[in-house]
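Re: export button greyed out
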Amino acid sequence: MSRESSLVNAQWVEDNLDNEKVVLIEVDEDTTSYDKGHIRTAIKLDWTTDLQDQVRRDFVSKEQFEALLSERGVANDHTVVLYGGNNNWFAAYAYWYFTLYGHADVKLLDGGRKKWELDSRELTDELPTRAATTYTAQEQDHTIRAFRDEVVESIGTQNLVDVRSPDEYAGRLLAPAHLPQEQAQRAGHIPTAANVPWSKAANDDGTFRADDELKEIYTEAGVNWDKDTIAYCRIGERSSHTWFVLKEILGQENVKNYDGSWTEYGSLVGVPVAIGDEAGEA
Amino acid sequence: MCGATEGGLSLDGINVAKEAIIQGQVTKAGDPVGTAYVRLLDRTGEFTAEVPTSASGHFRFFAGDGDWTLRTLAPQTDPVDTAVAAATGSIAEVAIAL
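Workaround output, generated via the alternate export path:
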């Protein structure tokens, strides 16, 4: 993968708004954002209801994902272009999710909704209509999804990248600062994890930094490019952004997103936890 | 009005006593700016969070005790930085004029 194969810019999106082979999808943390205005022809996926099992803590099943995309009019041969607010956090999460279920051609709009808005490009509240399809998903690709046991085994042996803010990493905050402070039982981070806030990978306008800048940021933070990497945050969305940078832009092999992230790890019984600004010992 | 606050956004269901809230309104020439983005930077200048403003130009963060910087981005405007101190149990109100 590379920047060219995984990212498109706003002009590309404007030029392809009426391209029948392209489906624009908005995925936002604020799930009402789409309803207040979206890019013309874009459909919406709600990460809380469409992409999460409504009983267990897990993703929707392969069959549910197939039914969802079929109903929304997304076909296997469509180019899916994702964008969203909050510097594409949830759009990157959806990108990872589409990749998890094996969608062939998926891309992110660089800068997402913020860049689009700051450029004063057009938004509409008109709802598009799309004909239903018969979508077939693949089995989940667990080479990009990490589970808790693998995370614990990776302490001190593989790269763990904690992409939360420094205050969350140190245990001074339990959640991003625009959300009420709640969630995991314990604050802190997984011992040996490097703290590289996801935001270091983005410019103020939400676009991704240049490849050489990105490489330098992770190298300086202690990421060993010869090792496998697991990225995590609080619930797995910001770490999708970092997964995207490492795997899709920089083309690094063996990068996983730990979607259980701190809300799971910080509530596990008996696992090691480090607090403070230092990575801690294995 | 139940739940209404000076900041304009409802605090219903939030235990204000446990939060260090920073909130306010972005305006330009006296008019609310509903298309701005407000970033919360920590004491070292590191990005911590970001929210879009509401239609009425309002925004809110749940921060921690200490000094923070708000960086406001809006179309056709240079970014504006505003310093603010937050404390648990209180609401720091910030008016940002672009």
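The CA atoms of residues 41 and 47 of chain B lie 4 Å apart. The button fix ships in the next patch.
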